Structure formats: structure tokens, C-alpha cells
């Protein structure tokens, strides 16, 4: 029996936020376990994102962030820095991240000027498709929907409305579990905030990652 054809890339992916005030020596072993899972997929390339929050008051942040960025990119992840305005843009350049996630519409243009056309820029849009429309017009590469503290999931209808009228990739922010992946894929989401599920999984980050990827493939109908 011949092996099934290897697909280029999945249609959806994981969005994993690094815990705040992370310690490199503690985080790296966990990330390596996550990457072992994502690298073992049948795809030629993955479609996952690693988010690092800008710690503006931490003197050693640049050094720590650069290490994690290099590790993530080597594993095929896109790495973005969540922060504010020009400060985030300059820091993203310094740590060699792929882009930034912003909170303010007015930051998009100046950040684009700093990072250039190839940088990946996202905007957090709360629960507002209208705000996402403005972000798209301003030239973002992706938008996110969710609550500011990421402790609740956004309504599926918000994602569905956006996906119905625009194909700009959308991240669902919040405490997603593998049980909710199918509904949000049907709503049109592109990336899924797997942070809480993976970091807090009782059987470890590797099992959490396995479960999330299985749920995505199952929802996409690509399980053998």
C-alpha cells in the first residue's frame, strides 16, 4: 500500500503565547517537547505561531526573547512580539522576530514603516468585526478576536461574521480546549490560542500539543 501524499501545509494552526516573565532554562525544555510534536506532523511545513509579550521593564528581556525567538523559528514557527507601537517594533527587530501583535490601530502605520513590508503585523480587535475591518484597511496581516484578559472565548458569531466577509487570517484568543476547535474551524478561524490548554495540561505540554493538533486534523477531515 502506498503512503498518503504529504500535504504542503495545514489550513489552520496553533497560536501559543509564551508565559510572562519566562525563564529560558525552564521554558526551553517545554518548547522542545512541543516542537517534537509539531515537527512530526505529515506536512512539509507547519502553520503555527509563537507569541512573546514585550516585558519593557525587564533588563534582560532582549537576551531571553532572542533565545526563544531563534528556537521557535528553527522549529518552523512564526514568532511575533506582543507590544505597543515603535517600542515593540524596535524590540522585534532586535530579537529577529517575524512581526508584532498590536493593540492600537494608530500604531499600524508607524510600525510598518519601521519593520517593512515583509513583517507580519496583527491587531487585537476585541469582539469587533468593525475594528477588524479598519485593521484590514490599514494593512494588517492578521487579526485576533477575544477578551482583553484572554480568560473567556469570543462568541463564534464574531469569528463567523468576519470570516464570511474577509479572508484575512483570524486568531481566536482565550482558553480554548480541543473540544472547541471544531466549532471555531466551522466559524472560519485560522489560528487557535492553545496556550492555556498546552501549558496547563495535566499530562504535560507534549500531550496537550498532540491533542490540539489531532482536534484540528479531525475537524479538517484529514485524519486517516
Please tag this protein with its features.
224 residues; alpha/beta; TIM Barrel; eight-stranded parallel β-barrel; disordered N terminus
Protein model, in words:
The protein has helices at residues 24-39, 61-74, 85-95, 108-115, 129-137, 156-165, 181-187, 195-199, 205-220; strands at 13-17, 49-53, 78-82, 99-102, 120-124, 142-145, 170-172, 191-193. By secondary structure, it is an alpha/beta fold. It has a single domain (13-218), classed as TIM Barrel, CATH 3.20.20.70. Strands 1-2-3-4-5-6-7-8 form an 8-stranded parallel beta barrel, surrounded by 6 helices. Helix 1 (24-39) packs parallel to helix 2, helix 3 runs parallel beside helix 4 and helix 6 runs parallel beside helix 7 (181-187).
Structural class given helices, strands, pairing?
alpha/beta
Mean pLDDT: 93
Q: Strands across the major sheet, in which order? A: 1-2-3-4-5-6-7-8
The number of helical elements comes to 9
Number of strands: 8
Return Rg in Å. Answer: 17 Å
First and last CA, distance: 14 Å
Largest sheet: 8 strands, parallel, barrel
Question: What count of domains describes the coordinates?
Answer: 1
Proportion in helices: 40-55%
CATH architecture title? Alpha-Beta Barrel
- And the CATH topology? TIM Barrel
Amino acid at each position: 500500500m502506498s503512503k498518503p501524499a504529504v500535504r504542503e501545509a495545514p489550513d489552520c494552526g496553533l497560536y501559543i503565547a509564551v508565559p510572562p516573565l519566562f525563564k529560558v532554562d525552564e521554558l526551553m525544555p517545554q518548547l522542545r517537547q512541543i516542537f517534537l510534536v509539531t515537527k512530526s506532523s505529515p506536512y512539509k511545513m507547519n502553520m503555527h505561531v509563537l507569541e512573546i509579550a514585550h516585558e519593557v521593564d525587564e533588563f534582560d528581556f532582549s537576551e531571553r526573547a532572542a533565545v526563544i525567538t531563534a528556537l521557535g523559528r528553527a522549529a518552523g514557527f512564526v514568532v511575533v512580539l506582543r507590544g505597543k507601537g515603535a517600542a515593540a517594533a524596535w524590540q522585534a527587530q532586535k530579537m529577529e522576530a517575524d512581526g508584532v501583535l498590536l493593540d492600537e490601530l494608530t500604531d499600524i502605520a508607524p510600525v510598518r514603516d519601521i519593520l517593512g513590508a515583509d513583517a507580519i503585523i496583527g491587531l487585537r480587535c476585541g469582539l469587533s468585526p468593525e475594528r477588524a475591518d479598519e485593521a484590514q484597511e490599514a494593512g494588517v496581516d492578521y487579526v485576533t478576536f477575544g477578551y482583553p484578559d484572554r480568560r473567556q472565548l469570543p462568541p463564534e458569531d464574531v469569528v463567523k461574521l468576519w470570516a464570511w466577509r474577509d479572508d484575512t487570517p483570524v486568531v481566536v484568543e482565550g482558553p480554548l480546549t480541543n473540544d472547541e476547535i471544531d466549532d471555531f474551524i466551522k466559524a472560519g478561524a485560522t489560528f487557535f490560542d492553545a496556550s492555556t490548554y498546552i501549558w496547563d495540561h495535566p499530562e504535560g505540554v507534549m500531550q496537550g500539543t498532540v491533542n490540539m493538533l489531532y482536534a484540528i486534523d479531525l475537524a479538517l477531515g484529514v485524519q486517516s
